[in-house]
Amino acid sequence: MSRLSIITRDKAQATVETLYKDLERRIIASPPGLCPIDLASSFLKMCHAQTCGKCVPCRIGLGQLEKLLEDVLNGEAELESIKLIEKTARSIYYSADCAIGYEAANMVLKGINGFRDDFEEHILRNRCTFGLYQPVPCVSLCPAGVDVPGYIALIAEGRYADAVRLIKKDNPMPATCALVCEHPCETRCRRNMIDDSINIRGLKRFAVENAGEVLAEEKAPTTGKKVAIVGGGPSGLSAAYYLTIMGHDVEIFEQRQKLGGMLRYGIPSYRLPRDVLDREIETILATGIKVHTGVTVGEELSIIDLKRRFDAVYIAIGAHIDKKIGLEGQEAEGVVSAVEVLRQIGDDEYPDLADKSVVVIGGGNVAIDVARSAVRLRARKVTIVYRRRKVDMPALKEEIEGAIAEGCEIYDLYTPGKIEIDDKGHIEALWVQPQIVSTIKSDRPIPVKAKKDPERIECDSLIFAIGQGIESKPLEREGIPVTEGVIDALNWGGIKNVPGVYAGGDCVSGPATVIHAIAAGKVAAANIDNYLGYYHIIETDVKISEARLADRIPCGRVNMRERDVTDRIQDFDLVECGMTLEEAQQESRRCLRCDHFGFGVFKGGRIEQW
Amino acid sequence: MVNLIIDNKKVRVPEGTTILDAAAVNHIPIPHLCYLKELNEIGACRVCVVEIEGINRLVTACNNVVEEGMVVFTNSPKVRETRRVNVELILSQHDARCAACVRSGNCSLQTIANDLGIIDIPYKEDLPYAKWTEGFPLVRNYEKCIKCMRCIQICDKIQDLHIWDLSNTGSRTNVDVSYNRRIEEADCALCGQCITHCPVGSLRERDDTQRVFDALADKDKITIVQIAPAVRAAWGEDLGISREFATVKRLVAALRKMGFDYIFDTNFSADLTIMEEGNEFVEKLNNRENEKFPLFTSCCPGWIRFIKSQYPDMIDQLSTAKSPQQMFGAISKTYYAELLHVDPERIFCVSIMPCIAKKYECDVSVLNDAGAGQDVDVVLTTREVARMIRAEHIIPEVLEEEEFDSPLGVSSGAAVIFGTTGGVMEAALRSAYYLVTNENPDPDAFKEVRERENSWKEASFDLAGTNIRVAIASGLGNTRRLIETIRKGIVEYDFVEIMACPGGCAGGGGQPIEDGVELAEERSDVLYGLDKINEMRFSHENPSVIKCYEDYLQRPLSRRAHSLLHTDHRTWEFNITPKKL
């Protein structure tokens, strides 16, 4: 017998390891709407399998909890049983020796808190309050409900124009979304159960770039009804597009010189080239929308007046007001907001940051956008200061990676302190206080002050990107309710007690994504149409081909590639490279067609019109 | 056209054909269970799986289409094993005590299991637990449900009432009443279409046969039975006798053998209904300015349940005339009791209906006007009667034809077509024409209403210078479309006939079941044939009806007619509100 030996994995253990990976991916692709008690019971069974068997609470208690949950599911429990489940779980939590036991019990306790109603429904009526309501994961997770499996099938067949037409049924800005959508559709893609989610956004980009010119759907006969849209961002443009093809007369009122909203004045062109955006807006306007630029609500424009002149009004003014940073010395020259910088860039006025040391405060997409823009404006050094950890940044992972690759430094776990000003009133340095990561609150660890001295970051420019709000005063004056910095609109876009006035997009939700804004525009268009006394159907005659029957062999996902760093930081041109034909064909054929296979063929697999 | 090979046979079928259909037209049957053409093509049971060369996993034949060059094997070893396992799995969650099941011998699961030679199930029985409301006219047996989803589909797509849905998720997925309601709280019309489309015995009517056997055995009871029009076109189906042989007169013979004292015809009271409803309509026409149109027929209780739950603001537009079943019940315990000189309490009135909702209708308290318990005591479906005939060991093949009893067994050809969509309208128009002009039209003058169209059929006729616009809809999805269109003011009608079941009572939810086959049209043809050969084609010429008025009711819409043959729909409560989707 040797004194020590190298531990090697046997075949069984290696197989179990791959099964763990399979399970992880499977949980990612879990469909929403499942019975939470059934899931809790299944999790508990797995937890119980993990027990070493040494201690009573875990070895016996978890098994008894499982049985109690099964009784609830089988309609064999009394209301009293909930108390017994709680008591048992609590005792396991208090007395289990290691986390395998007490965290398993904690999951059960969380469940009783989180879905007690469902426990009661099972016990009293032997029914679950939940039901599978979202059969096609990608479609149901797209706020606009775009027919993803449909257009991927069309791409696989090389019918790119049809793919774009199908997208436009639910989203009139496919080119924009092809580049900047945060693709919530991909998060629970069922393909995860085999290998990895489909690169849906990448495929959309391929379709858009190969579709040629795709005209708007034919307009319905004119209704003579007039709709005013306040704000020419993605939400306003989407509402305008659908209302126009429904036959209504639409006019857009825009504060800035050009349409696009945050797409132009927030997103830099290396992510969304201006020519792409301009073309998309032109296509929408070509349906016959009248545009007035340079008009602001509360100044040249009054909602009350618009209400008088139009049959309905849609407010989609976005959230463009930067939140102030509140630091000592913030009045110093060289301290600006990210919104301001990106707005200038949007109007092709590039601030001079050449050879400057720039500090950006914030961890969201806007912070990253402005940091990467600063790199392109030839800043000497770009530092992103963020109070939590890098992994906690709300910005897209690939954007953060892009920024790092382009030379941005990330100072995580630092809170900004005072601003040091030179004798000319210009910023000289930012003092930052080191933090230590601490306990978890609302799923994110909070930072607390570390027992370290403040540090000084020398800089010529400070750009803060710590969130945006809306200009509420003029709206309130006109009787539009504003709560917690956003317009108080209902989930169908209407505003309580203000008939005929609708609102949506960032000005209602607070800063969110393009696709959320587009979806809000679509919702508003449908409800305004009804309000005007119509029920125009939006649909397309694109026929989607039958699902392929071939086996789905595990295959890697085609990820997007980017231009060479040294090359791309020289200009504001698009960073991301599109898929090749070969890649698009392979990627599109990975789609599992959940509209045909599984629940989708039974219910809700395809919403052909709205 | 697409070329492919199925089981080594070269075949050529049009593009878009499913593998199942491509095989079927080439005499290669692929067993299937959940599939119902155009209604349920969801591949849930996985019994119709086939192997396709070059594809490792099996493919369902019911909802996948052929491709050029495809090589299909419907019975390869892989298919054979998988199909068998799937049927065994279904059986493990199915109460397979077939000997005690109404669908034994007419069950698609039983047939497939038998065909595959399954005599032993390797899996443990794992039946779901759920409780159904005792006594409701519609019965779901959760332990027999195979989750084919057909009931959900028929109620969603054809009847547009969405009563059924999946309940729970995962391993406990079940089919149950939607929105976590109990069936008695739901706005179910009781059309019974879910029953006639169930491939197994999970859905059925409440069985009332024992109550009838008990009444027949009770020496003090005078048992009267009425046979609905559509029953005569279908009753033989469950007994394996041909449509030609299974005449209503042979059904009369079977019922007499069973021991019923008097065997009558609902057609008699259908003629009576025409007298009342026809006069009501003509009266309404004469008072056009003050009346709201259209007038809706009221003989289908499924439709009555539908309008009361879906469009309660329109119930004043229903004809106040009771259905033929209820008119018959009221007459049998008043006029006929007098004729027999018996205490009406002794009369036990049974009706044989192609319908589930009729079981509900006879229980509605405000419909009982004869003052001797329920006007109709028990309603049996066509299927229940066939079961009783079998239980009595009556051999239908040797039955001689026998006549109905008199006087409530006399009826016109107009009455017999009540059993098909458009029939009530046609019968009513024949008599309305007479009421307005005092002369008979050509009995086939209103034949146009027999044509079947999508959603609903409309027609207009000239009644002595008055243009009458009528519409006919069957199936509740069609009905909803028609009513929505009327409510939007897009169409206007004077008289509208609605039947809850597609094709009318001929396709009723209480009729015999042949899986995958819609028989309403074939049965309707029988009824039209019976109308054609009847020497009496007009309700108002029915001598028994005339005599009943002369001796008892006086005239249509008289006080007595009103108290016995009409109802106030506002007192007939049905406080069920539908859940919006």
UniProtKB/TrEMBL annotation, chain A:
A Gene Ontology molecular function term of the record: oxidoreductase activity
Domain NADH-ubiquinone oxidoreductase 51kDa subunit iron-sulphur binding: 37-82
Top-level taxon: Bacteria
InterPro entries documented for this protein: DPD_II, FAD/NAD-bd_sf, FAD/NAD-binding_dom, Helical_ferredxn, Nuop51_4Fe4S-bd, Nuop51_4Fe4S-bd_sf
Pfam families according to UniProt: Fer4_20 (PF14691), NADH_4Fe-4S (PF10589), Pyr_redox_2 (PF07992)
Designated name of the protein: Pyridine nucleotide-disulphide oxidoreductase family protein
TrEMBL record, chain B:
UniProt keyword Membrane, yes or no: yes
Domain of life of the native organism: Bacteria
4Fe-4S His(Cys)3-ligated-type domain ranges (all copies): 78-117
GO biological process: ATP synthesis coupled electron transport
Residues in 2Fe-2S ferredoxin-type domain copies: 1-78
InterPro entries xrefs: 2Fe-2S_ferredoxin-like_sf (IPR036010), 2Fe-2S_ferredoxin-type (IPR001041), 4Fe4S_Fe-S-bd (IPR017896), 4Fe4S_Fe_S_CS (IPR017900), Cytosolic_Fe-S_CAF (IPR050340), Fe_hydrogenase (IPR009016), Fe_hydrogenase_lsu_C (IPR004108), Fe_hydrogenase_ssu (IPR003149)
Gene Ontology cellular-component annotations: membrane
Spans traversing the lipid bilayer: none
Chief place where the protein resides: membrane
A Pfam short name: Fe_hyd_SSU
PROSITE patterns (alphabetical): 2FE2S_FER_2, 4FE4S_FER_1, 4FE4S_FER_2, 4FE4S_HC3, COMPLEX1_75K_1
Every 4Fe-4S ferredoxin-type domain range: 135-166, 179-208
Gene Ontology molecular function terms on file: 2 iron, 2 sulfur cluster binding; 4 iron, 4 sulfur cluster binding; ferredoxin hydrogenase activity; hydrogen dehydrogenase (NADP+) activity; iron ion binding; NADH dehydrogenase (ubiquinone) activity
Alphabetized UniProt keyword annotations: 2Fe-2S, 4Fe-4S, Iron, Iron-sulfur, Membrane, Metal-binding, NAD, Oxidoreductase, Repeat, Translocase
This enzyme's EC code(s): 1.12.1.3
Subcellular location: Membrane
Cofactor: [4Fe-4S] cluster; [2Fe-2S] cluster
PANTHER family in alphabetical order: NITRATE, FORMATE, IRON DEHYDROGENASE
Protein family (similarity comment): Belongs to the complex I 75 kDa subunit family.
Name by which UniProt lists this protein: NADP-reducing hydrogenase subunit HndC
Species of provenance: [Clostridium] ultunense Esp
